[in-house]
Write a structure and sequence with these properties.
Chain lengths: 211, 211
Amino acid sequence: MIFTAEQAGTLWDVMRWRRDVRHFRPDALDEATLERLRAAMDLAPSVGNARPWRVLRVDDPGLRAAARAEFEECNALAATEYDEGARAAYLRLKLAGMEVAPVQLAVFTDTDPASGRGLGRRTMPETLRASTAMAVYSLWLAARAENLGLGWVSILRPEVVGRILGVPEEWAFEGWLCLGRPEESEDAVSHTPLLHRVGWQENATTQWLRR
Amino acid sequence: MIFTAEQAGTLWDVMRWRRDVRHFRPDALDEATLERLRAAMDLAPSVGNARPWRVLRVDDPGLRAAARAEFEECNALAATEYDEGARAAYLRLKLAGMEVAPVQLAVFTDTDPASGRGLGRRTMPETLRASTAMAVYSLWLAARAENLGLGWVSILRPEVVGRILGVPEEWAFEGWLCLGRPEESEDAVSHTPLLHRVGWQENATTQWLRR
């Protein structure tokens, strides 16, 4: 398979226009779309082909409410750690779309899977969690290419989320994903990511330092 | 930015044809290409826009030889942990292209960056390392779309690589990346990834379990 410069440009556009979306429209996504997005995770690299990601699709209103309450608590606590000016800026940020997003996924890594037979992770077990991060990114890019938005919420205590959902001890929590049609907000239309735009953290340039 | 179904298909093709490449041609890559690939890492998501990845481009033959020797040692040790049949299968696998790949990158995560101002990682500091995994995947996909191959080597002890390269204590090692033109081997032309093809670990399907 040989790609053209135009196809490479398309990949770049998808990556460039991916955003962490926090403003969603409530309309449901159809199951055929969700099935494609689920399958996009199958394309991610994983250490030893272990595919250690474990995904719960949380529809139950009680479970969603419990997770949202956990977010609110962690977010309020996080705000207290900044001094006055930064605290006000922090509290102005909208950091999750958990109250509206029609699809919500809790993503974990099985930290001791039989699959992969240990290959590639003997000295670096953390490659299992890196595999899950790449599976999330596969989903994220596939969603963006279908003009859908995804937001990765990490302002949660892993042990609390694990307790809410009753997952096995060896599943490490990676994040709560909100998925849906983005509102016509700056999330979706601005070329500049929110945190850069509001001055929280400007973009730094990746360096490849010579050795 | 609204993407068409055809553009979404292109993203899928790039993801589907990405491989962990271990057979490289030795020819150098031009610096303009490398500059594009470097910039692809800038497009990755990162917690709080912290961009915590740190990349060393290792050209020095002595440093490369030391890293390769470390791989050989770890790989031989890993083989001893399998029983006889699996050991023979393991030793038949070619798991790194470090002796030939023209570009080699050592990738780390700064686990305590000022950037991002702590946002999103207070309860989940591991999101910094997840950010780096996604930066590597951005590079990987961008390379594939330019018909180049990348292989992620993790059969290395992080503390030994850190010592070889003399990096700060707070940099966590994520992987050694080999980059170059792929040989016309099965790495590049088979639709089925190596580990599935040889029966080491077949592909599993991602599940979204309802809750």
